[in-house]
Amino acid sequence: MNLNALNPAGNEPTVPGRWAADVEAKLAAGEKPQAWLEIDLDNRLKFASGLVLVTDRRLLAYTPDNTRWQEWPLRGGLTLNHHDHAGVGALELVDENGRLATWRYTLARNLAALRVIAEFDLHRDSLVSGQPVLRSTDDSCPKCKAPLPPGEDECPVCNREAAVAPSTWTLFRLWRFARPYRWQLFIGFALTLASTAAQLVPPYLTMPLMDEVLIPFQNGKPIDWPLVGMYLGGLFGAAVLAWGLGWIRTYILSLVSERMGRDLRTQTYDHLLGLSLEYFGGKRTGDLMARIGNETDRINIFLSLDLLNFATDVLMITMTAVILFSINPWLALVTLLPLPIIGWLIHFVREKLRTGFEKIDRVWAEVTNVLADTIPGIRVVKAFAQEKREGERFRAANEHNLQMNDKLNKTWSLFTPTVTLLTEVGLLVVWVFGIWQISKGESTVGVLTAFLAYIGRFYTRLDSM
Q1: What are the backbone dihedrals phi and psi of residue 169, each rounded to the nearest 5 degrees, phi first?
Q2: 192 in the same domain as 106
Q3: pLDDT of residue 284
Q4: What residues contact 138, with CB distance under 8 A and at least 6 apart?
Q5: Does one domain contain both 103 and 187?
Q6: How far apart are CA 407 and CA 204, in angstroms?
Q7: Of 85, 37, 89, which is closest to residue 59 (Cα–Cα)?
Q8: pLDDT tens for each residue of 65-94
Q9: Residue 429 and residue 425: Cα distance in Å, rounded?
Q10: Are the CB atoms for 272 and 287 separated by under 8 Å?
C-alpha cells in the first residue's frame, strides 16, 4: 500500500450540497474538510438537521439549537467520544475541564460518525506531534473514505459487505444442523442415485431400437414386435421408476428442509435474544430480519436440497461420461471437447453471480430496514411530518436495489446464451464426427442417436451446477 505524506487530506469527502456554501465560507485559506456527519436530531430528540465537520485544523459544528457555527481548534487534550442508546447515537466533545458539546443522531448515520472520530483523532495527533498525516493513495469511498478493494467500485463498509469472502470450509460448521436428520438425508441421497441411474436408461435403449428394429425395417426386414415390446416396456418402466423415486426423494427432502429451517430460525432467534443492547444499537433492523428470514432460508435450502442436487449433477455427469466412453470412446472424446471451455465459463460467471446475489441480499436488507423503521414508527413519522423524508429514504434504497439488479442482469443475460451457443457447437461437432464414423462403418445410427440424447442431459446438468 502506497503512502503519501505530502497530501494529508488524501481524498477529500464531498460535503452535502445544501451545506457546501456555508462550509466554504467558514473554511480558511488552505483548510480542507476531512469527514462530516449530518446529524438529524436535536438535543430534545426531535428531527432536525445539522452538520459536524472535521477539517485538518478544526472541528466545526452547526446544530438546530444554535443559530451560528461553533468551532474548536484541534489540540492536545481534546477528545471526541461516541456512544449510543435505544437507537440514538451521540458524539461528545470533551477536554480536561469537561464536556464542551454534544450532538445526537439516529444510528443510520453511525458509520459517518465513526469516520468523523477517526479523522478527528488522526489530525489532532498529527498537529500535536508535528508529524504529517500518512494516508493511503489507493482508491477510497467518496462517502466514508474507506479503501476500496482492487477492481471494485462499491464500498464494502457502506454496503455492509465483508472485504474478505468467507472460506468454503465454513459450510462444514452447518453439519450440526443436518446431523439430527442424517438418516433421512442418506435415504434422499440413495434415492437420488437410483433415480439418476433410471434416467440414463431410456437413451441407452434407443440404440437397439434404431439398429435392431427401425433400420432393418427400412431395409426390408419385418419388425420383431416382441423385441419392440421389450424395449418399449423398458423405456416405460425406466420412466415410471424415475418418477416414483423422484417423488419419494422430493417428499422426504421437503420434510427434512422444513424441520431444518425451523431449527435454524429458532436457534438464530434464541442467540439473538442473548446479545447485548450495544449489539442491537449498532445493527439495522432490516439486517437482523434478513438473518432470521431470507438468509436462514437460503442456508436451509442449501443443506437439504441444493447440496443433494449438486451431488445429483456430479453423478449424472460422471455416469453419462462413463456410458459414452463404454459405447464409443472416440465419439465420446469429441462430445466432451467443449467441456473445458464451458466448465471454465461456468466457474468464472458463477463467482460473479454469487457476489452479485450477495450484494442484492444486502441491498434488499436496506429496503427492509427502511420499512422496519417507518411502519412500526408511523405515528412518530406523521407526528413530526417526516413523510417526505422517509419517502426519499425508501426511493434511494429502492434505486440502489434496481442498480444492483441491473448490474447482475448484464452478466446473467450474457452467460445463458453463451452456454447455449457452446452446447450447440458441441452438438454440431458430434453430428459431423458421428456421420463421418457411420460413413466409415465405425459406428451406427443408433449409437449417434444415443449420443445426441446423452449430450443434452450432460450439458443441462453442467449448466445447472
Answers
A1: -65, -20
A2: no
A3: 66
A4: 1, 2, 147, 148
A5: no
A6: 43
A7: 37
A8: 777 888 888 888 888 888 877 667 888 999
A9: 6
A10: no
Is residue 193 packed enough to be buried (19+ CB in 10 Å), middle (13-18) or exposed (0-12)?
Answer: middle
Residue whose C-alpha is closest to residue 243's, from 202, 279, 282, 209: 202
CA 100 to chain centre: 44
C-alpha–C-alpha distance, residues 124 and 116, integer Å: 12
Q: Which amino acid is at 127?
A: L
* Cα angle 403-404-408, degrees, rounded to a multiple of 5: 115
Q: Is residue 119 domain-resident?
A: yes
- Domain with 387 in it: 172-464
Domain count, the chain: 2
pLDDT of residue 167: 54
Q: What is the pLDDT of residue 248?
A: 92
Which single residue is written with the C-alpha cell 438473518? 291
pLDDT of res. 192: 82
Residue type, 93: L
For residue 305, give the nearest of 251, 346, 378 by alpha carbon: 251
425 contacts 388 by C-beta, under 8 angstroms: no
What CATH code is carried by the domain that includes residue 360?
A: 1.20.1560.10
pLDDT of residue 305: 67
The SS3 of residue 136 is: strand
Q: Is the dihedral of CA 54, 12, 109, 277 positive or negative?
A: negative
Q: 283, 110 in Cβ contact below 8 A?
A: no
- For residue 303, give the DSSP letter: I
For residue 20, which of 66, 63, 51 has the smallest C-alpha distance? 51
Of 136, 158, 187, at which residue does a domain stop?
136
In a domain? residue 246: yes
Question: Can you give the pTM of this predicted structure?
Answer: 0.50
pLDDT < 50 stretches in the chain: 1-11, 137, 142, 150-151, 160-164
Count, residues in the chain: 465
